[in-house]
Amino acid sequence: MATWRRYEELRPDELATCVSQTPVVFWPLGLLEHHGWHLPVGFDGMKAERMCMRMAEQTGGVLLPTMWWGGGGGHDMFHWTFYQDESAYTQILVETTQKLIAYGFRAIVILAGHYPWRKTLEERLPEIREAHPEILLLFGTEVTIVGDAVNVKGDHAAKEETSYGLSLFPERIDMDAMRSGRGDEVWPNRTPPPEDRRHSRVRFDPNDPLFAQMGEDSREASAAHGEAGVLQVVNEVVARIQRHLGG
Ligand SMILES: [Zn+2]
After folding, report:
1. Residue 124 burial (CB count, 10 A)
2. CATH number of the domain encompassing residue 230
3. Less Cβ around it within 10 Å: N or C end of the chain?
């Protein structure tokens, strides 16, 4: 296993040594939002961070603190969710990426666990990548970060994400929490959102055990299914980093 470090814990001299020895950095992008009754609200960031850690165990490098502030998606009116303005998180994304390049990182992996990050990433990062052909700049969700090199799927708190969670942090998942008999206390103002503000594929009935989910039945999730997807993404990203730094 390679040695990797958390960016925020390092002194300047230690960071300089890390960059000179292994100029690799991972930045997980998440969000705090309702992910069904059975998953933690930080699910997307936790998923991305654990996958980045799995990559770093093979390549070494530095892990940036997870970006918890973002937005986009169909859950802004759910209790415990935070969505920020797009201009705010876009600015943080672009400026941080430019700083990482300026600080000498040669392989930068920006992995978004929250899928709407994809729009911002694809709008703003290609021009940075084109301006720095010497840098390996990989960005996207676990479904898109290496394109067609892997065959994995995503959803919201449903079968796919629950499987990733069962593989990466089963101790934070409570499958028994998915039950009926819930009231409307899930809405911050106790009033359900109007029909025209509801994402058409999200389950809005709090009494539905699959509340807030979008996708196939999460009760069919399995750690083995999740791990199969995690392994594909981790191995492909690691191979690209090693190829880039070795060449
Ligand atoms: Zn998610």
Report:
1. 15
2. 3.40.50.10310
3. C
Has residue 190 been placed in a domain? no
pLDDT band at 138 (very low <50, low <70, confident <90, very high): very high
Four-residue CA torsion sign, 64, 9, 98, 82? positive
Q: Ligand 1 mean position to 44 CA, how many Å?
A: 5
Full domain range(s) for residue 74: 4-182+202-246
Structure confidence by residue, pLDDT tens digits, 149-162: 999 999 999 999 99
* 112 Cα: distance to centroid of ligand 1 (angstroms): 10
Confirm if 107 and 239 have CB atoms less than 8 A apart: no
Structure confidence at residue 190 (pLDDT): 76
**Separation of 114 CA from ligand 1 center, angstroms?**
5
Residue 247's pLDDT is what?
Answer: 55
- Domain assignment of residue 192, yes or no: no
